Amino acid sequence: MSAGRGRRVLASADPRAAIRRSFEAIPAAAQLAIAATASYAFAHVVVGHQVPLLAITVCLSSLGFVRDARPKRVVETAVGLSIGVALAEAMLLAAGRGVWQISVALFVTLLIARLLNAPPPVAVAATAQSAIVLLIQLPAGGTWARSVDGFIGGAIALLATALVPRDPRRAAQRDGSRVLTGLRRGIDDAARALRTADRPAASAALAGLRDLQPAIADWTTTLDSAIAIARVSPFLHRRLPELVAQRRLLDGVELAVRSMRTIARRAEAVTADAVPRPQLAELLQAVGSVVALLARSLRDPTLLAPARDDLQLIARRLDPREITPEASVTASIITVLIRPVVVDLAVAAGVPADEIRAALPTLS
């Protein structure tokens, strides 16, 4: 088991982490409960169906208790599930109920779902809805009543995405904070390795930066979902510029993490001679301080301005001839490798790419 996976397993068993997960799930749970109840009420009270089971199941499955709540995904899931229900209803009309009919209906539903390029979980969920139709007794509303219930559930799921949205902005802030905190920790470990010629610290920096990939993926999914919801929700539309700016920050941070992994590998190599390099450590610490500012800017965007200023000051210092004039090629190249980290973070913070590159000293 990898160190990152081991930490995630331990975190899942931590009572405080469990309580935090439950607390963070409140918006999604509330949305699901409200939407499913509305689906049932509409199908039962307005349409007159006595037991609109599929209105609830299709609504819940369409929204999903997942990080990705984009309207496009909700529509794709709702349509896929509704098609599965309608195919099962058609099979009942054409061939009746029986073992071979179930086999054919499930087989055809899976093939059509893949023909429509539905994601595998949607294809399986559509097949499950088809099986429900084939197994439960015909409702009082007639053969196509369950198809109507399915479309009601899908439609209300889409309405709930816009009118009862989860709080994607807060979730994106949490995910972004985890990534930036991990990046800051990796930078600090690399700086400590260079300051004290501590090779295990460099190894820890590299391992921590590698373990950030799942957190980056979570931030990407949450943020893309938040942007998509903000585009259709009248309650969140005003947050769209803020979310788009955070997406720009994510792009730059992801590139910076990749570059920092390379720096951590170089730090492992350069510390083999047991010679401290405080100049390089101080340079990395300065970058780490800016990363801390960027983390705080997720909740206070005014902090982006001082972060931009600090990054431009750091950029002007990134001349290996000044930082490590007597150093080996391996040590000097660390200064060169810090340059793309600073450029990526500056662009992420809103500095034009040409401006930050112009601030870098020319390499001979």
Question: What does this 3D model show about the protein?
Answer:
The longest helix is centred in the last third of the chain and has 31 residues, at 240-270. The protein folds into 2 domains: 3-163, no CATH class; 170-359, Methane Monooxygenase Hydroxylase, Chain G, domain 1 (Up-down Bundle), CATH 1.20.58. The model has no long low-confidence stretch (mean pLDDT 86). The two termini are 46 Å apart. The protein has 364 residues and is mainly alpha-helical. The protein has helices spanning 3-13, 15-24, 26-46, 53-63, 71-95, 99-115, 120-135, 145-163, 168-196, 199-210, 213-232, 240-270, 278-297, 304-317, 320-323, 329-349, 353-359. The chain contains 17 helices and no strands. The chain is 79% helix and 0% strand.
Distance from N terminus to C terminus (CA atoms, Å) equals 46 Å
Low-confidence stretches: none
Q: What is the 3D form?
A: elongated
Residue share in helices? over 70%
Structural class: mainly alpha
DSSP E strands, number: 0
Please count the helical segments.
Answer: 17
As a whole number of angstroms, the C-alpha radius of gyration is: 27 Å
CATH fold-level topology of the largest domain: Methane Monooxygenase Hydroxylase, Chain G, domain 1
Secondary structure layout:
Layout: H1 3-13, H2 15-24, H3 26-46, H4 53-63, H5 71-95, H6 99-115, H7 120-135, H8 145-163, H9 168-196, H10 199-210, H11 213-232, H12 240-270, H13 278-297, H14 304-317, H15 320-323, H16 329-349, H17 353-359
Helix pairs in contact: 3-4, 3-8, 4-5, 4-8, 5-6, 5-7, 5-8, 6-7, 9-10, 9-11, 9-12, 9-13, 10-12, 11-12, 12-16, 13-14, 13-16, 14-16
